[in-house]
Fold:
Amino acid sequence: MQNKPHVLIYAPWYEPAMDRLDEIAITHHLYKANNKEDFLAEHGPKCSVIGTMHYCPAALMDAVPNLKLILNFGVGYDGVDIPAATKRGITVVNTPDVLNDCVADMALSLILAGRRKVLDADRYIRSGDWEKKGNFEYVHNVHSSKIGILGLGRIGLEIADRCKAFKMDIAYHQRTKRSELNFKYYESLIDMAEDCEILVAIIPGGETTEKIIDERVIEAIGPTGLLVNVARGTVVDNEALARCLKDGRLGGAALDVFPNEPAVPESLLEIDANLILTPHMASATHLTRMKMGMILYDNLMALRDGTPFKTPVN
Amino acid sequence: MQNKPHVLIYAPWYEPAMDRLDEIAITHHLYKANNKEDFLAEHGPKCSVIGTMHYCPAALMDAVPNLKLILNFGVGYDGVDIPAATKRGITVVNTPDVLNDCVADMALSLILAGRRKVLDADRYIRSGDWEKKGNFEYVHNVHSSKIGILGLGRIGLEIADRCKAFKMDIAYHQRTKRSELNFKYYESLIDMAEDCEILVAIIPGGETTEKIIDERVIEAIGPTGLLVNVARGTVVDNEALARCLKDGRLGGAALDVFPNEPAVPESLLEIDANLILTPHMASATHLTRMKMGMILYDNLMALRDGTPFKTPVN
Structure:
């Protein structure tokens, strides 16, 4: 086939999906290069597309002068410099909707495992404590508990639907009330945290939500409460979180995301009981990752064919 | 108050609930005695009630000649010798229904944690592998997966209701079809296991279900499948399970129950990846345990007042 676009792969994604791009494009895998500067100087100029997962700084865009399209594997694009892309006339596309179910499933996995202390219980058996010390501690209910959802977008709604099946009392907070929905709305995050036993974050990252879950909010969730973060690591003040877990001001936490991945704050790694850490895997199932990849594939086809992009964000 | 019945506590339960019995009875705590034989000889004859959790052998009934009532904390009474009790004219009561939600929550906790590999993922971070080796392995979906429920009683139905919210495809097996329900019925357990990605057991224990989940059934669940047991440890051939986990014939398992609790089979303790072990805690939340205890309290009141028992099983 003629006129295959050249794609610079900056941060790789699910390989079986990424490999499909080779059917319709010529890919250059920057992340594999030993000397990235040389690689970029050689291949950057012929590329019209960057493929990435979460991150694309303006400096990289400058190294690809004929750039027309950025393929971002994932929904959140807070690591992509959108203003810089828009200014240069570059379209950014993401992979919405196909991962909603998967991320909601992961949120519930963490809510349930956190609330019922599944990891602590597993360690209790494996250390021999069940035989030595008797029954494991009693925990708190999932069913009939009060949950606050920070960010009731498309994924937040999927989380809410699942929570309904657990007979939970559901509330939410975000900037604007969704009057069409029958869930309790809180104008104030801290008021919601005071009233809830479980707080789950699924708002976009970026500056406006940075450390929105601060020490006061964490304290408000309280000593028998649980914080779950499937949003972005930046939305939680993780140092405050570590302090609150250590001195019992917060009952437990379950985190799928961190501010500087794959690094995890040392202060959190020091804690084992009542803290679940997972490596940003909320959408990381085979099927969902393939679906996400095929959205990028379809956008690349659109570039080649001169048809409208499927999922532009700018 | 006069005429308080004497209660022999054989196996203790949730203390705040057990303590409430002292309002209406005189309790004798056999499990605390150093010399159990002497304790039983001294207190057995004056007791008209035994309180226990899961177990009550016929020999114990014989040591309590004026026995009228056995309070069993829990739904399952396979550890209580029902024929022996019935033969002696002793009523056995259990604590049904109030724990349905809690056990269903625990079943989902194990389904989700098992399917999304939450425990393996947590270990992956804590060992430093995320930074050293890159992304964690991709896992399989919860949503849209096929689940088979072995035993669609009251708890099974609560599990099914929750699975619906995850858009799962739900089937069940037990001796009799429930024609009023809209779930797919399998006459054969092994056929259901073949067709499902997740199998969850919530049938009664006892001889008729012993090792009903045998090596053939476990193999049928398959290398990407998950087995969850919140029923009784006896319903699974745990040695076969260990073999199938070790050689990859089964994808994963999550077990809340074991044949000889609090002992856990060595062959299972040798396995960490893809295996979750919890110490029989499906109903072990503060609120549920108190509700279960109050059912026993109400039955004890009924004995004292000569009114009908609330929850007899024989």
Remarks:
- The CA atoms of residues 125 and 131 of chain B lie 8 Å apart.
